């Protein structure tokens, strides 16, 4: 692999990442046109329904695209979707060589884009910075291949594994830098999910508040079998550009359900499972609504249900250098847990971040 190829692909990846949290249900894609060692076009996909990255880069390059190399983080599409096929635009522009990071996992494309380009006589190379590209689009890859959202479990605990004191005090365990990063996570994923217990205890608004302003609020999903969410809870009343979905189970008092609907919340009824809602069916329904990623922020019982049902894809585990102690003080993952160590959820591909004095472990469920 040539260093120059990696260099320009990194440029394309950086362009793609500019639209993080803005392209759902589509991928983040970046493209760079290079001719004679000079960058003559750059582009990225800004929002679903708008032109693809390749189109922006080719437009900027204009006639300079003739005989040039196109770097794209994802295989160009060859289907007629919301926009026309990029393969045809690439061929018409006179590009002679195409370098890709990864093939498109979208079954509508999946290899057919590369095939079309090769048939037209273009030289195509793939796999440049593939791992970085797959990580950038991990949410899209799961969603487009399974139609289920990518599930991210985020929790914050003390050094001794507590999320509250024995008396129940829980705000705030981590410091301001960790909390700021959580708002970036909310800005990035399509939905945030908590249990009604958290709504009753903390009355959170669950919006994305970035220091720079301009956060994109996630859809708020409240697991609430019996429709106990108060009509005046912030998740119901506080203005947000994203809707609030309250997930109930059969048997929830109809007058409570109606009151919440009248207050502006949307209700989804999902079959019961154990003491709560059937999470697998809920995820399927969220996927049907083009929710590609869900940030699960607990509490402990809900975290426990997601872990036990093996529905977690990724974790962000914040640890504050505090020792709370107390045999009765709760940990981040409740429920019955696994009784055998062998069954424990194994987390791999670990990255460690520092946020002020806090540590955050990012990793993937095996
Ligand atoms: C994008 N942006 O830069 C590229 C994409 O609904 P459409 O027509 O926008 O098509 C979306 C699909 O196009 C997407 O799932 C992916 O397979 C392919 N490539 N999509 O949104 C881009 N290059
Ligand atoms: Zn395209």
From TrEMBL:
It catalyses: 5-amino-6-(5-phospho-D-ribitylamino)uracil + NADP(+) = 5-amino-6-(5-phospho-D-ribosylamino)uracil + NADPH + H(+); 2,5-diamino-6-hydroxy-4-(5-phosphoribosylamino)-pyrimidine + H2O + H(+) = 5-amino-6-(5-phospho-D-ribosylamino)uracil + NH4(+). Residues 3-125 form the CMP/dCMP-type deaminase domain. Its cofactor is Zn(2+). GO terms for molecular function: 5-amino-6-(5-phosphoribosylamino)uracil reductase activity; diaminohydroxyphosphoribosylaminopyrimidine deaminase activity; NADP binding; zinc ion binding. Pathway: Cofactor biosynthesis; riboflavin biosynthesis; 5-amino-6-(D-ribitylamino)uracil from GTP: step 3/4; Cofactor biosynthesis; riboflavin biosynthesis; 5-amino-6-(D-ribitylamino)uracil from GTP: step 2/4. The active site is at residue 54. Its EC number is 3.5.4.26, 1.1.1.193. Gene3D superfamilies: Cytidine Deaminase, domain 2 (3.40.140.10), Dihydrofolate Reductase, subunit A (3.40.430.10). Zn(2+) binds at residues 52, 77, 86. Keywords: Hydrolase, Metal-binding, Multifunctional enzyme, NADP, Oxidoreductase, Riboflavin biosynthesis, Zinc. Transmembrane segments: none annotated. Converts 2,5-diamino-6-(ribosylamino)-4(3h)-pyrimidinone 5'-phosphate into 5-amino-6-(ribosylamino)-2,4(1h,3h)-pyrimidinedione 5'-phosphate. This is Riboflavin biosynthesis protein RibD. It comes from Desulfoscipio geothermicus DSM 3669. The lineage of its organism: Bacteria, Bacillati, Bacillota, Clostridia, Eubacteriales.
């Amino acid at each position: 692999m040539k260093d120059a190829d990696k260099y320009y692909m990194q440029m394309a990846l950086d362009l793609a990442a500019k639209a993080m949290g803005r392209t759902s249900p589509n991928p983040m894609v970046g493209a760079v046109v290079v001719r004679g060692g000079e960058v003559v076009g750059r582009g990225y996909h800004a929002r679903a329904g708008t032109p693809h990255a390749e189109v922006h880069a080719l437009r900027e390059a204009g006639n300079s695209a003739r005989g040039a190399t196109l770097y794209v983080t994802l295989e160009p599409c060859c289907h007629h979707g919301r926009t026309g096929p990029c393969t045809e635009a690439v061929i018409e522009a006179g590009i002679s060589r195409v370098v890709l990071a990864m093939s498109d996992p979208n079954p509508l494309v999946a290899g057919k884009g590369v095939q079309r380009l090769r048939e037209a006589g273009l030289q195509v190379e793939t796999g440049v910075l593939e791992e970085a590209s797959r990580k950038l689009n991990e949410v899209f890859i799961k969603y487009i291949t399974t139609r289920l959202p990518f599930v991210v479990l985020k929790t914050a605990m003390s050094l001794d594994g507590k999320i509250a004191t024995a008396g129940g005090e829980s705000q705030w365990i981590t410091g301001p830098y960790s909390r700021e990063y959580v708002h970036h996570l909310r800005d990035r994923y399509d939905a945030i999910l908590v249990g009604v217990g958290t709504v009753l205890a903390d009355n959170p608004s669950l919006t994305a508040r970035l220091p720079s302003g301009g956060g994109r609020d996630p859809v708020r999903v409240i697991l609430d079998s019996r429709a106990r969410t108060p009509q005046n809870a912030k998740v119901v009343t506080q203005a947000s550009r994203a809707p609030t979905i309250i997930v109930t189970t059969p048997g929830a008092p109809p007058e409570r359900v109606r009151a919440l609907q009248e207050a502006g919340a949307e209700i989804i009824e999902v079959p019961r499972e154990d003491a709560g809602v059937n999470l697998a069916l809920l995820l399927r329904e969220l996927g049907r609504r083009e929710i590609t990623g869900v940030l699960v922020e607990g509490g402990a019982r809900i975290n426990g249900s997601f872990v036990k049902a093996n529905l977690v894809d990724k974790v962000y585990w914040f640890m504050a250098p505090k020792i709370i102690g107390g045999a009765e003080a709760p940990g981040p993952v409740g429920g019955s847990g696994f009784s055998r160590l062998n069954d424990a959820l194994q987390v791999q591909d670990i990255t460690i971040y520092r946020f002020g004095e806090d540590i955050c472990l990012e990793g993937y469920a095996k």
